[in-house]
Design a protein that fits this description.
By secondary structure, this protein is α+β, with helices and mostly antiparallel strands. The chain is built from nine helices and 21 strands. The longest helix is centred in the middle third of the chain and has 10 residues.
C-alpha cells in the first residue's frame, strides 16, 4: 500500500472563500469557487446531516469504505484496536474569504450524551497565510459571561457584543492556535489555515443573521437551540490560558522535525513540521502530509516514488511502512492521537 496524492475535496459551504486554496494547490487563484472555502483532506467524515465531504481514492472508492474494508492496513493494528475504522482525525485547508460567524463545538462528553458520538470537535489552526497585515482570529471570552447575557446577545443577534467580548488575536503565517471544544471562536477574513480536528462536523452557531443560517434560531445539531448552546464554555480566558494555546512562529523554516502544537492537543491529534533538503525517514503511521513549500518525492518499499510539491496533500497509510521524504521540502505531517 503506497502513499496517495489526493485531489481537492471542497463541499459547498455557507460562507465565501477558496482563492487561497486554489493558489496554494495550482498557483492560480482564479480557479477558485466562491463557496469552496474548505478542502476536506483524507476525509472519512461527512457534513452534518449530509452525504457530502467524503474523500475519494483514485479508483473511485470512498476512503471511508476502503478503511472499513481493511482498517489494519490503513490505520495500523494498535489504532484500529482503539478507534475501529475511524482515522480519529479530519484535516482541512480553510480559506476564510469573509469572517466566519462566532460559533462553538461540543466536547466529547456532550457528543456522547446528546449526539451518540465518541468524538467532539476540538480543533487546531496552523496559519499558513494571511491576505493582510491586520488578520486576526477570535478565541474565548475575555471575562466570565453569565448565561442571561449570552442568551440575550444570541437572541437579538448582537454580533458587536459577541465579538467585543471575545479575545481578538492578530495572527500571521507560522502561528498556531489550539481551540479546545466548548470555546467560542471565529476566524477573521483573509486567514488561510491547515485545520486539524476531531472527525465530526458539529458546530453550534451564536451568529447566523448575516450568514444565511436563520434556521439555526430554533434548532442546532438536531437539538433544541438552548440545549445545543449549553456546550458553550462561558468562562473568561486568562493571559496564561491564551498563551498555552497560541504559539507564535511555531511553523518555521528551520531544518528538522518538530511538533507545532502544545501537548494538550495530543489526546486529539498531532502535527509535526518536517523541513529538509537532504531527506528524512518517517516511521510507519497513518497520516496526512501537506506540502507547504518545495518539491521532492516519497520513497519506500511500496514501489515507485511518489512525487510531491507545494500544495500537495498526501494520504500515507500505515501499511506503506517507513516513508522517506527526499528533496528540498517543507511538510506538515498531520497525525491522529497516539495509542498505546
Amino acid at each position: 500500500m503506497k502513499p496517495v496524492t489526493l485531489p481537492p475535496n471542497q463541499p459547498r459551504q455557507f460562507y465565501r472563500g477558496g482563492r487561497a486554496i486554489a493558489e496554494f494547490r495550482t498557483g492560480n487563484a482564479g480557479r477558485a469557487e466562491e463557496f469552496g472555502p474548505e478542502d476536506w483532506v483524507a476525509s472519512a467524515t461527512t457534513l452534518f446531516g449530509q452525504d457530502a465531504g467524503l474523500s475519494t481514492l483514485p479508483d473511485g472508492t470512498a476512503l471511508r469504505d476502503a478503511i472499513a474494508a481493511d482498517p489494519v492496513s490503513y490505520l495500523g493494528s494498535a489504532h484500529a484496536a482503539v478507534y475501529d475504522t475511524s482515522p480519529a482525525l479530519l484535516v482541512k485547508l480553510l480559506d476564510a474569504g469573509e469572517r466566519l460567524p462566532v460559533h462553538v463545538h461540543p466536547n466529547r462528553e456532550f457528543a456522547q450524551t446528546h449526539l451518540n458520538c465518541r468524538f467532539g470537535k476540538t480543533e487546531a489552526w496552523l496559519i499558513i497565510g494571511t491576505s493582510d497585515s491586520d488578520a486576526a482570529v477570535y478565541v474565548g471570552f475575555k471575562a466570565d459571561v453569565d448565561q442571561a447575557a449570552v442568551d440575550a446577545w444570541v437572541k437579538s443577534q448582537r454580533s458587536d457584543m459577541l465579538l467585543e467580548t471575545l479575545n481578538r488575536i492578530p495572527v500571521r503565517r507560522g502561528d498556531t492556535v489550539l481551540i479546545p471544544a466548548g470555546t467560542p471562536h471565529a476566524i477573521g477574513a483573509g486567514v488561510f489555515i491547515i485545520e486539524l480536528q476531531e472527525p465530526t462536523d458539529f458546530s453550534v452557531m451564536l451568529e447566523w443573521e448575516n450568514f444565511g443560517l436563520a434556521s439555526r434560531a430554533e434548532e442546532q445539531l438536531g437539538l433544541p437551540s438552548a440545549l445545543a448552546l449549553s456546550c458553550l464554555d462561558r468562562s473568561g480566558w486568562s493571559n496564561g490560558r491564551l498563551a498555552s494555546c497560541v504559539s507564535r512562529g511555531a511553523l518555521s523554516g528551520v531544518k528538522g522535525a518538530r511538533s507545532v502544537l502544545p501537548h494538550q492537543a495530543d489526546p486529539f491529534f498531532r502535527a509535526v513540521q518536517v523541513v529538509t533538503d537532504d531527506g528524512v525517514t518517517l516511521e510507519p503511521q497513518y497520516g496526512v502530509l501537506v506540502v507547504l513549500d518545495g518539491a521532492g518525492e516519497l520513497t519506500g518499499e511500496f514501489g515507485d516514488p511518489v512525487a510531491i510539491h507545494r500544495g500537495d496533500t498526501v494520504l500515507v497509510p500505515h501499511a506503506a511502512g517507513e516513508v522517506a521524504i527526499r528533496g528540498d521540502v517543507n511538510v506538515v505531517r498531520c497525525l491522529p492521537p497516539a495509542v498505546g
